[in-house]
Write a structure and sequence with these properties.
Elements lengths: L2 H18 L3 E14 L2 E12 L17 E5 L8 H10 L4 E6 L4 E6 L2 E6 L3 E3 L5 E3 H8 L2
Parallel strand pairs: 3-4
Antiparallel strand pairs: 1-2, 2-3, 4-5, 5-6, 7-8
Length: 143
């Protein structure tokens, strides 16, 4: 991934950590998520939030529980089709997915099998009524 992608992941995860660190584990850097065991399928996510009640211990293994929120920042060249990855995430019960499409300055939110498309200037609800505007992240970080 590019330097710009890395910066986006850092800036968004930093904001999420400030908002949610008491109740959620915020994890970054291609966190492995088990999709299915047979045949083995593991996908990696840019940013993952999972409640501290659900994930009590931070281990050396991949996540075998569905996260509460996954945020993906568009890369220049995706390793897997985005639609396919969205479907895999939905299949394991991830409550909410947020896809940040840098090339179009759009945000796709998938929740309860419903898809909504927003602009960077819209406030996007994350979890528990907390919101984030990606244009603010962009401005504050000079992206």
């Amino acid at each position: 991934a590019s330097v710009k992608h890395g910066r986006w992941v850092f800036e968004v995860s930093n904001k999420l950590n400030k908002i949610f660190k008491r109740k959620y584990n915020v994890m970054v850097d291609e966190v492995g998520i088990l999709i299915k065991k047979n045949p083995l399928l593991i996908l990696s996510a840019d940013i993952v939030l999972i409640s501290k009640r659900k994930l009590k211990d931070i281990s050396d293994s991949i996540l075998q529980l569905a996260p509460d929120l996954v945020i993906e920042i568009e890369k220049e060249k995706e390793e897997i089709d985005i639609e396919e990855k969205m479907n895999y995430y939905s299949s394991i019960g991830i409550k909410k997915q947020i896809w940040v499409l840098l090339s179009r300055r759009e945000v796709i939110v998938i929740e309860d099998n419903k898809r909504s498309i927003y602009s960077f200037d819209d406030e996007i609800e994350l979890l528990e009524g907390k919101k984030l505007k990606f244009s603010d992240v962009e401005k504050e970080a000079g992206l």
